[in-house]
Specification:
The relative contact order is 0.09. Helix 10 crosses helix 13, helix 10 crosses helix 18 and helix 15 packs across helix 16. By secondary structure, the chain is of the alpha/beta class. The radius of gyration is 31 Å and the shape is elongated. Helix 8 links the parallel strand 4 and strand 5. The two termini are 27 Å apart. The chain has 19 helices and 22 strands. The strands form four sheets. It has a six-stranded parallel β-sheet, with helices on both faces. A six-stranded parallel β-sheet has the order 14-13-12-15-16-17, sandwiched between helices. The chain folds into five domains: 100 residues, Helix Hairpins (Orthogonal Bundle); 109 residues, Rossmann fold (3-Layer(aba) Sandwich); 87 residues, no CATH class; 124 residues, Rossmann fold (3-Layer(aba) Sandwich); 67 residues, Alpha-Beta Plaits.
Length: 553
């Protein structure tokens, strides 16, 4: 990715944008400055250092009095220099102050007066939980981020250091100034399908090439979204179903990316979760352990400095993140079988909103008898229409309901909208020792820990699930090496090119102790810990970077 560098052409361009008074005053001031230095050097007979020293002391009005002009010609030049200096400084101060006000004003809602001079930037409409996660992950990858949000959350974006415009992203006169033809992508995360569709129509009318990604709440909007030019509309129900399939799977080796679709490189990051990995490591003999993933908290822990696999230390509670030679995994995909397809298991669903109904329909469970715990009449009517077995959820009868309904090995999918109902269900299952396969969905990541303390094995923050799925689609479509996302870390591969070489050299130097960067050197042919003092980054090198705590809360 190209980085904006200071060069003569950019300096000239910026100077040409100054008001005409400043464009006249600045050259006059510079000429008089140089002339005065020359006069005090050759007419007054002082040294270069003394001459420059006198002129600077004069302009700053310090006036020590240790050096003074000795003739009328020198005095006249000094007078002209002081007058031009005062005028130039006054103009400059006014222009700077005006530019600061303009920049500040643009950050609090005004439409840019001209098209932004940016390339490969990312536009994010909506800075809620999904927008914050997407912005943070893309900034990790080196993208310039533009946030557009009309609400109070825009102040959070400004505080996080993003260029922010507090306005409606669906306004066409706003989109016209965002240089969409040169943007890498636009993400519409508005929680309002109508606003999303309008914004997409306007964005596509401006640029036929920009990649547009959006979250939609209603399944009916999916087909409409494709007509208006959204490249990959992501339904919440689709995201949840995808995540549930990934969580509820049997022991397996798993490589989560289709390496054949990547142009820049082939992915080499994957998970292993298996009780018998001997055969796997005979096949992937270059595998190197990067760390472990806690399945409950969705957190990543970096392995030691010289990690080695111990195939006898696998735990059902963790997944192991590894990296292998990309040539070894080409065309290989892991095996998994969903526990949801096991005919011997019963499935209980707590809560039955329209999104829950759409999610279950994508899990191919039509042949299974589901038990639905309903808490309001709307859920009851919807579940009854679909032919499910119904049980009314009552908090004061939670222990009895769980005891009579749930057996060992059953799967409980909890979608209750009320967090209190969900926690009580989790505690009731824990007291009966039946929480082994409880999967709880929550809206925000901050709600994960209470459920983990209550004994829930899998907690799915829906906002992050949507953001992660959208980004996976974007990376694939934009031919960007993929990322692995966790609640406390971001892991990704990066190919070093001529355009981004300087950027990644600087970035690696800035990584702190809690972060880890590995470099796969073509020369060495293996993964090694990157050391800025001993190793020099070159074009063609492949970075594997692990960032801890990179997300905006």
């Amino acid at each position: 990715m190209s980085q904006e560098l200071v060069n003569p052409s950019s300096i000239v361009e910026r100077f040409s944008q100054l008001p005409i008074r400043s464009r006249i005053a600045v050259p006059i001031f510079l000429v008089l400055f140089i002339v005065n230095v020359l006069v005090f050097k050759y007419v007054e007979g002082h040294s270069w250092i003394t001459s420059i020293y006198f002129v600077i002391i004069l302009l700053t009005t310090v006036g020590f009095g240790d050096i003074v002009p000795s003739n009328d010609f020198s005095r006249i030049l000094v007078i002209l220099l002081v007058i031009s200096g005062f005028v130039t400084f006054a103009f400059a101060a006014e222009d700077i102050f005006e530019n600061i006000l303009k920049e500040r004003f643009s950050n609090i809602g005004s439409i840019p007066t001209k098209t932004l001079n940016l390339e490969n930037h990312i536009i994010i409409g909506g800075y809620g939980s999904k927008g914050r996660r997407v912005a943070s992950l893309l900034r990790d990858r080196g993208f310039e981020i533009i946030v557009i949000d009309p609400s109070e959350t825009a102040q959070i974006a400004i505080a996080a250091g993003y260029r922010t415009i507090i306005t409606d992203v669906s306004k066409i006169d706003v989109l016209e100034k965002l240089n969409l033809d040169k943007a890498k992508g636009i993400f519409l995360l508005l929680n309002d399908d109508h606003a999303t569709i309008h914004a997409a129509i306007h964005a596509r009318s401006i640029s036929q090439n920009v990649l547009i990604y959006a979250e939609l709440r209603n399944a009916e909007s999916d087909e409409v979204a494709r007509y208006v030019g959204i490249d990959n509309p992501i339904l919440l129900s689709t995201s949840l179903a995808s995540n549930l399939r990934e969580i509820l799977r049997e022991d397996h080796s798993f490589i989560p990316y289709d390496t054949r679709t990547l142009v820049t490189q082939q992915a080499s990051i994957g998970y292993i979760r298996s009780k018998n990995m001997n055969n796997i490591f005979e096949e992937f003999n270059t595998a190197q352990l990067l760390g472990t993933v806690n399945l409950s908290l969705n957190t990543f822990q970096i392995a030691g400095r010289s990690p080695e696999f111990d195939i006898n230390s696998v735990s059902d509670r963790y997944e192991y993140l590894f990296s292998v030679d990309r040539n070894q995994i080409s065309g290989k995909h892991g095996y998994w079988k969903s526990l949801l397809q096991d005919d011997n298991r019963k499935i209980h669903v707590a809560g039955y909103s329209q999104i829950v109904k759409d999610t279950l329909s994508k899990l191919d469970l039509q042949s299974k008898q589901l038990t639905v715990l309903w808490s309001n009449e709307e859920e009851y009517d919807r579940a009854k229409e679909d032919g499910h077995f119904l049980v009314k959820w009552e908090v004061n009868k939670s222990a009895k309901i769980v005891s009579e309904l749930v057996n060992e090995g059953d799967i409980v999918l909890s979608f209750f909208e009320d967090v209190t109902d969900s926690l009580i269900l989790a505690l009731s299952l824990k007291r009966k020792g039946l929480n082994q396969n409880l999967v709880q969905t929550v809206v925000y990541e901050r709600e994960v820990k209470p459920f983990v303390r209550a004994g829930t094995n899998f907690v799915v923050p829906s906002q992050y699930v949507v953001a992660d799925l959208i980004l996976r689609e974007f990376f694939n479509d934009a031919h960007i090496p993929p990322s692995v996302f966790h609640g406390n870390s971001h892991i990704f591969e990066q190919v070093v090119t001529e355009d981004n070489l300087k950027y990644w050299r600087r970035r690696l130097r800035s990584l702190g102790y809690d972060n880890l960067a590995l470099i796969y050197s073509n020369k060495l042919g293996r993964l090694v810990k990157f050391d800025n003092k001993k190793m020099k980054l070159n074009e063609g090198d492949r970075l594997l970077i692990m960032l801890k705590k990179s997300f905006t809360p």
